[in-house]
From TrEMBL:
Gene3D superfamilies, sorted: Glycogen Phosphorylase B
Sequence ranges assigned to domain Glycosyl transferase family in this UniProt record: 189-343
Domain (Glycosyltransferase subfamily 4-like N-terminal): residue spans on this chain: 16-178
Top-level lineage group: Bacteria
Keyword vocabulary terms for this entry: Transferase
A GO MF term: glycosyltransferase activity
Species this protein is from: Dyadobacter psychrotolerans
Matches recorded under InterPro entries: Glyco_trans_1, Glyco_trans_4-like_N
One GO term (biological process): lipopolysaccharide biosynthetic process
Name of the protein in question: Glycosyltransferase family 1 protein
CDD domains attached to this UniProt entry: GT4_MtfB-like (cd03809)
Length: 365
């Protein structure tokens, strides 16, 4: 049985949760006697598909920093993906994001994964001309099977779209709790830091987090913040830190997976203040790296983390600051949540997640 994946997230992400999700499925298929797969990709810098980079790759990486060249590569990869769709030499098509370029070409079953419904739930945080919600709806309407990555995401999908519930399967993200973690130190890293991972815009609630840190910074002069992911600090980010006199206390670093594990392992606390998520894969990453977590009190986070983390009221800066301080002053609390996290991690085995996905493919043919 042959599965076709397209290029989208492998073109736009070198690191990232969605491309890693699909790479995990592809890697399992490559070990299987029952399945084969193909990826509609001419060239990619994605770490999960290609861990070794040649001198040519490094040269191309410099060129691809140009937005015009990056758009051209995206277009070339998309044309190649659509060519493979038109060839019809596969059994199931599973695109890696919501661009609907293939809809007039596809003749085989379509599986789409709904990662979250944040655009639909919190439209005020997004550009009005962004086509993502429209593209996602086209996928949902055409799909023969829909994977929702949490019960919260399924509930949101049914609320915002007239989706056929019988087509929706909830398949959680997974992680191998027993595989060894690789660690690599991050240069010039200050001790005693709170970790923030991912994008910083809008619904991610980053500015409330920085306000809470400002409140704590005067009382705890040795406390710092390390940011990773989400791209380098933007102008608005830098201006905010300058106004709050936090420029020397907040550092952004770009890291590999091994360095990210190091950041989790050595953080005082990982804070994930987002107003809404579809799952929250960094929660599992932090659990495995033995890092205590503070989450905003949202339905999805409650579903995934249960009692293995501390929660704060999502819009309450004082509550967030108070909960952070409780971890700074009580080391035994950190240990309690680390132990709970390791236990909760075992409820998300990667092999079960992949098996459910492959079984879903089988059901369509």
């Amino acid at each position: 049985m042959k599965i076709l994946f397209d290029h989208q997230k492998f073109t736009t992400q070198r690191y990232g949760g969605i491309s890693r999700y699909f790479a995990n499925i592809i890697q399992q298929i490559e070990k299987s006697d029952e399945f084969s797969c193909e990826v509609g990709l001419l060239y990619s810098q994605n770490h999960y598909l290609k861990t070794e980079f040649s001198s040519t790759d490094k040269f191309l990486a410099k060129i691809l920093k140009s937005e015009r060249v990056a758009r051209k590569l995206y277009s070339l990869n998309e044309r190649y993906s659509n060519r493979l769709v038109a060839k019809n030499d596969f059994d199931v098509f599973h695109p890696t994001y919501y661009d609907p370029y293939f809809l007039d070409t596809l003749k085989k079953p379509l599986v789409t994964t709904i990662h979250d419904m944040t655009y639909e739930k919190l439209p005020e945080y997004f550009w009005a001309q962004d086509p993502l919600s429209y593209h996602k709806r086209l996928h949902v309407e055409r799909a023969d099977a829909i994977i929702a990555i949490s019960e919260t995401t399924k509930s949101d999908l049914l609320k915002f779209h007239d989706a056929d519930e019988s087509k929706i399967s909830v398949i959680y993200h997974g992680i191998d709790p027993d595989s060894p973690l690789g660690f690599r130190p991050v240069p010039d890293l200050r001790e005693n830091y709170i970790l923030y991972v991912g994008d910083r815009g809008g619904y991610k609630n980053f500015y409330l987090f920085i306000d809470a840190f400002k409140r704590l910074s005067e009382k705890y002069p040795e406390l710092n913040v390390v940011l990773t992911g989400g791209g380098s600090l933007g102008i608005a980010d830098r201006e905010l830190l300058l106004r709050l006199k936090l420029t020397d206390r907040v550092k952004h670093v770009n890291v590999t997976d091994e360095q990210l594990n190091f950041l989790y392992q050595n953080a005082v606390l990982f804070v994930y203040p987002s107003l809404h998520e579809g799952f929250g894969l960094p929660i599992l990453e932090a659990f495995k790296a033995r890092c205590p977590i503070l989450l905003s009190d949202t339905p999805c986070f409650r579903e995934i983390a249960v009692d293995a983390v501390e929660y704060f009221s999502a819009h309450d800066m004082e509550d967030m600051a108070g909960k952070i301080e409780s971890f700074l002053t009580d080391s035994s609390k950190r240990n309690v949540y680390i132990d709970r996290g390791l236990k909760r991690l075992r409820d998300f085995p990667l092999d079960i997640s992949i098996k459910k996905t492959l079984d879903l493919y089988k059901s369509l043919v």
